[in-house]
Amino acid sequence: MSKSLDDLLQDLAIANRILVNEGVLDGFGHISLRHPERADRFFIARSMAPGLVCADDLLQVDLEGAVHDERGRRTYVERFIHSAIYAARPDVHSVVHSHSPSIIPFGVTGAKLRPICHMSGFLGATTPVYEIRHSAGESTDLLISSQALGRSLAQVLGQASVALMRGHGSVTVGHSIEQAVFRAIYTEKSAHLQMQAMRLGEINFLTEGEAQATSAMNDTHLQRPWEMWKRQALKTWD
Ligand code: MN
User: Fold this and answer.
1) CA-CA distance, 45 to 59, in Å (whole number)?
2) What is the rounded CA–CA span in Å between residue 23 and residue 17?
3) How many angstroms is it from 105 CA to the middle of ligand 1?
4) Are strands 129-130 and 30-34 parallel, antiparallel or unpaired?
């Protein structure tokens, strides 16, 4: 049985709180959900801190990044991350953009973020890094503030689950809110573990086959951590 739109929007609000609790989002960053009834729209919060988002704060944006809100509210400058990825990837139904800290070092050093344990198999063989200088020169504010920049990011993401954004953060995609949240949380955790392991010696990463198999296995268990994260988020809801 599929969820009602109201339940999905409540999940999207809760996902904002979860990602703050788990150290992925802070006062910045966002998560969106493709509209379940019209593929050319997605839901995202109005321009506000993710830790404060309620279902009533969600508004609709189209796949060119234009806001459609009868209350005339504004959303994030970087909504184009979401619009361009939904346009390029019909399989994607939820997108997280964050500045989570452990990912930043991998975007700026050339060290590859790779699956180090069975919880991060979704990273695949390697994680692409988006370099905004290639599309917009050397004096940008690093933000994805137009559909053209969004398209160049979506191109670098390709069919991957995660792309890093040099000196800025990352984008994580999923076929559901639960999967996008799971991946965003475990991308941050995996990056942290990889930095610790790099100090000890050469790392024995998952093979491509192990990455695929562990990712497929974890996809059958997305509800387990989701229910826990959700309960924790609801406890701290004011
Ligand atoms: Mn950003």
Assistant:
1) 6
2) 10
3) 16
4) unpaired
Cα separation, 95 vs 33, in Å, equals 7
**H or E segment and range at residue 34:** strand 30-34
Residues forming the active site: 78
The rounded distance, in Å, linking the Cα atoms of 162 and 215 is 13
The reply to whether the predicted model has a pTM over 0.85 is: yes
How many folded domains does the chain comprise?
1
Residuewise pLDDT in 10s, the chain (238 residues): 689 999 999 999 999 999 999 999 999 999 999 999 999 999 999 999 999 999 999 999 999 999 999 999 999 999 999 999 999 999 999 999 999 999 999 999 999 999 999 999 999 988 999 999 999 999 999 999 999 999 999 999 999 999 999 999 999 999 999 999 999 999 999 999 999 999 999 999 999 999 999 999 999 999 999 999 999 999 988 7
Cα angle, residue 214 at apex, residues 211 and 216 outer, rounded to 5°: 105
> Can you give the residue range of the structural domain that contains 156?
5-235
Ligand 1 mean position, distance from CA 78 (Å): 7
Taking the centre of ligand 1 as the mean of its atom positions, its distance from the CA of residue 21, in whole angstroms, is: 18
Q: What is the CATH number of the domain that holds 188?
A: 3.40.225.10
Q: Are strands 162-165 and 129-130 parallel, antiparallel or unpaired?
A: parallel
